[in-house]
Specification:
Elements (H helix, E strand, L loop, with lengths): L2 H53 L3 E5 L2 E5 L11 E6 L5 E4 L14 H9 L6 E5 L7 E9 L5 E10 L1 H53 L14 H50 L6 H29 L6 E5 H16 L4 E6 L4 E5 H18 L5 E8 L4 E8 L21 H6 L6 H11 L3 E7 L3 E9 L12
Parallel strand pairs: 9-11
Antiparallel strand pairs: 1-2, 3-4, 3-7, 5-6, 6-7, 8-10, 11-12, 12-14, 13-14
Helix pairs in contact: 1-3, 4-5, 5-9, 6-7, 7-9
């Protein structure tokens, strides 16, 4: 997951938590404030009702065949949603307001709270909520009526409908959800835009670094922003690192070139002296001279390879491009491979007709001979080495060199093109390898704008695939990873 995506997720998550906490706070505060206002109103109506009860006597009325008591002063509540009941000490309803429905004529507004107060010795006023069948929920204020002498004469219950409160709560919850969801959605968009804007210099730095890597040009530098921020300091540090690497790389090139050049003279002297010693047949042991000759030859090949690598690193290797017929080239490689094999392993070659590439013939021969020679060396006697050429991906030719040898361990595959790397150190030395052949082959193929890929399985064998462009070297197709 990219940093841009993580930043966007964090922005959105933090804002979501903030909006959730804010919305929850607003919802509960508005609900609490509304209930406080309702409770204050209920207390005011209760006090007014007590004043009326003390000032006037209730009158007896008939309603649906029932006799009920009414306080004339409560007629103002007929069209309101405030309901009043005065209940005797035993729980019998004594007085009701005109707007109390038939359902509550014989049932208190909140029977449960009333029963609790009747049974309790604590007669403190209580606020509660109650629900009745086919009626919206109500908020009820229950108060014990006690005379100055401390006698309990009854209970007063004042209630109001909570239907408007529930509707307001639902509307508020809907509004908060819409606004919160919209805020989260737009914050995600803005967060993504801000993260992209903030990380754009890092993207540019990454693109430049990858371009330097692909071009293998350590002389190129990244652009340093003038913002003097963290990205600017990172760019400067990156350029300083490139400068240091460039210096080290040039020093390495000079060292390899100088060592290669300086070693040629003593090697020539050693081989000349060996030849002189050979003329004096009784001077030295022939096997000793042969060993000196073999080691000097190996040293000479290593010096030549090092010189070639230094030219490749410095970018001064000149490729003499020409049109090469792959079938003819593989025929030449096959003849050389049969000489190298000397019948120890079977070598075969095949190529599709008409396959041609533009390449340096000598360099391409060296690549294929390195691969074939390695395959022959590590294939047991009686094994098989195959060289095949087919039309590969896009406009590329694929030349494969495969064997049925012991294979390469998986842990070694990422390193086999590194210089002086040996899968089996002792065995490679015994076979005369220098550890530079595959590195040289890789560099030559890269110089031809191609690619070399290895596939291997222990106990089964190894295959090297070389992809070369059919047309001009600068026109690359899609190559496999």
């Amino acid at each position: 997951m990219s940093i841009r995506t993580r930043l966007t997720i964090w922005y959105t998550a933090i804002l979501t938590v903030i909006l959730l906490l804010f919305g929850t706070g607003v919802y509960f505060y508005v609900t609490w404030q509304t209930i406080q206002n309702l409770d204050s109103r209920l207390v005011q109506v209760a006090e007014a009702t007590l004043n009326l009860a003390l000032a006037r006597r209730p009158v007896l009325e008939q309603r649906n065949g029932r006799q009920i008591l009414r306080l004339q002063g409560l007629n103002a509540l007929r069209a309101s949603q405030i309901y009043v009941q005065i209940i005797g000490p035993s729980g019998l309803i004594l007085v009701t307001s005109p707007n109390v429905t038939d359902e509550f004529l014989l049932v208190p507004l909140d029977p449960k709270t009333l029963n609790e107060m009747i049974r309790s010795s604590d007669k403190m006023p209580i606020f509660s909520e109650a629900e009745h069948r086919n009626s919206p929920p109500i908020r009820v204020f229950t108060k014990a009526l006690i005379t100055n002498s401390g006698d309990l004469v009854g209970y007063l219950q004042v209630a109001t409908s909570l239907e408007e409160l529930k509707t307001a709560q639902n509307n508020l919850l809907f509004a908060l959800s819409i606004m919160g969801g919209s805020g989260i959605f737009f914050s995600a968009i803005v967060g993504a835009w801000m993260a992209r804007r903030a990380l754009r210099p890092v993207d540019e730095l990454t693109k430049t670094a990858m371009a330097i890597y692909r071009a293998e040009n350590l002389d190129r530098r990244v652009m340093v922003p003038k913002t003097n921020d963290e990205v600017s300091r990172l760019s400067r540090a990156f350029n300083e690192m490139l400068e240091r690497l460039s210096q080290l790389f040039r020093a390495q090139q000079r060292l390899i070139a100088d060592v290669s050049h300086e070693l040629r003279t003593p090697l020539t002297v050693i081989r000349g002296n060996v030849e002189l010693l050979r003329m004096q047949s009784e001077c030295c042991d022939k096997e000793m001279l042969d060993a000196i000759t073999d080691e000097s030859d190996r040293m000479a090949r290593m010096v030549k390879n090092l010189s070639l690598l230094s030219q490749m690193d410095a970018g001064v290797l000149q490729l003499r491009l020409q049109e090469i017929d792959i079938k003819e080239l593989l025929g030449t490689i096959l003849r050389s491979a049969q000489v190298i094999s000397a019948g120890r392993v079977k070598v075969s070659a095949s190529a599709e007709q008409g396959l041609k590439v533009e390449a340096d013939l000598d360099q391409l021969k060296q690549v294929l001979l390195n691969l074939v020679e390695n395959a022959i060396k590590y294939t047991p006697e009686g094994g098989q080495v195959n060289i095949d050429a087919t039309a590969g991906y896009s406009d590329h030719v694929r030349i494969s060199v495969s064997d049925n040898g012991p294979g390469i361990p998986e842990k070694d595959l990422p390193h086999i093109f590194e210089r002086f790397y040996r899968v089996d150190k002792s065995r490679s030395r015994a076979l005369g390898g220098s550890g530079l052949g595959l590195s040289i082959a890789y560099s030559i193929v890269q110089a031809h704008h191609g690619r070399i890929v290895v596939h291997s399985k222990e106990g089964v064998g190894t295959t090297f695939d070389v992809y070369l462009p059919i047309k001009q070297p600068g026109k690359n197709g899609n190559l496999p990873a």
